[in-house]
Amino acid sequence: MLPVHRIVVPTPYPVGPVNAYLITARPYTLVDPGPDTEQAREVLREGVVRQGLQLEQIERVMLTHYHSDHSGLAQWVHELSGAPVYLHPYELPKLSGNYDFVSDRLPFVLEAGVPEEVIRLVTADRDRLPKPFVCGENVVTLLDGEELPFEGGSWQVLHLPGHAPGHLCFYDRQGGVLLSGDFLLPHITPNPMLEPDPENPLRRNPSLTQYLAGLERIKAMDIERVWPGHGESMADYRPVVAASQQHHRERCDELTGLLRQNGEMTAFQLSRRLYPDLKGFNNFLGLSEVQAHLDVLESRGRVRGQKKAGVVYYRTAGDA
Ligand SMILES: [Zn+2]
Ligand SMILES: [Zn+2]
């Protein structure tokens, strides 16, 4: 089994701390170094020193996905150590340093019927940290199924999208260990983020369909320990998978129930019914959750969307 050390790195985000992982087998590898704050730099440095290494000795930086709580310090560790940064190619454009989260999604947000004043609230509630940046020249891109050799073992790269289009997990097959990033978390159902499809940006990414397929995929695997992107490690991950599947089933039923009661509704109206008290950026996350379930329901023929004056209205498929 490859030696995995968890370093709990503080973040300024509501999610709480993020887990960075140090693998003390050559090449020395650091997964998801954390957000770009002074406090995170300090904690990361101390965590690495505690395992008898220096950040300058890191030989590989791996990112599970582009979110700044995981990726913010990748470039810094690269600059200290010269280590290349490994990630999925879909995540690279989001690490350009000027990626605009809201404008990238604006057509879908408008289509969902989000009023302008709510868009303004989401836009105003922006990340105070610098936008994550990784210099493209230092990047090595990884695809599903690739093997990453270590002294004494290897990792298989798993592309498990849904929370982010290029989300990766790393699997030590011999040790039965999975580093799951935000794909599988002990107490949170990861948000199936509303995004353009990286292969066809005019289309919405089928985030939840992809995510549910990923859950089936890891359910069929034989994993003895999961090290997640937030929280404690999990010895028995199957109940977490089952709870997540259950959550998505219930959410689908809840949305079809609301549509049956109310006739037609937009994704935004539905998100307001499910989450009446959301503030700022959380309005976007609530919308994301609803839109992802509507997309799954539509692909299964349970609801139908119809565009009127640029806004999509959903109704249950049985209704005229
Ligand atoms: Zn994330
Ligand atoms: Zn996260």
Explain this structure:
With 320 residues, the chain is an alpha/beta fold. The chain has nine helices and 15 strands. The chain has helices spanning 38-50, 68-71, 74-81, 101-111, 116-124, 207-219, 238-262, 267-274, 282-299, and strands at 4-9, 18-23, 29-31, 60-62, 85-87, 139-141, 147-150, 153-159, 168-172, 177-181, 196-197, 200-204, 225-228, 303-308, 311-316. The mean pLDDT is 96. The site of one zinc ion has 4 residues, from loops. One zinc ion is lined by residues 15, 18, 67, 69-70, 182, 229-230.
Key terms for this structure?
Metallo-beta-lactamase, Chain A; 2 domains; Arc Repressor Mutant, subunit A; alpha/beta; Metallo-beta-lactamase domain-containing protein; 9 helices; six-stranded mixed sheet; 320 residues; 15 strands; globular; binds zinc ion; five-stranded mixed sheet
Cα-atom radius of gyration: 20 Å
**Succession of helices and strands:** EEEHEHHEHHEEEEEEEHEHHHEE
Residue-averaged pLDDT, rounded?
A: 96
Structural class: alpha/beta
CATH class of the largest domain: Alpha Beta
Distance between the termini: 58 Å
Second CATH tier, the architecture of the largest domain: 4-Layer Sandwich
Bound molecules: zinc ion
CATH topology of the largest domain: Metallo-beta-lactamase, Chain A
The name of the CATH superfamily of the largest domain reads Ribonuclease Z/Hydroxyacylglutathione hydrolase-like
| Total count of domains | 2
Strand content: 15-25%
Helix content: 25-40%
Q: Specify the overall morphology.
A: globular
Low-confidence stretches: none
Please give the count of helices: 9
**How many strands, which pairing sense, and closed or not: the largest β-sheet?**
6 strands, mixed
| SS elements, strand count | 15
InterPro entries: Metallo-B-lactamas (IPR001279), RibonucZ/Hydroxyglut_hydro (IPR036866), Sec-metab_biosynth-thioest (IPR050662), WH-like_DNA-bd_sf (IPR036388)
Domain Metallo-beta-lactamase: 17-230
Protein name: Metallo-beta-lactamase domain-containing protein
Organism: Desulfotomaculum copahuensis
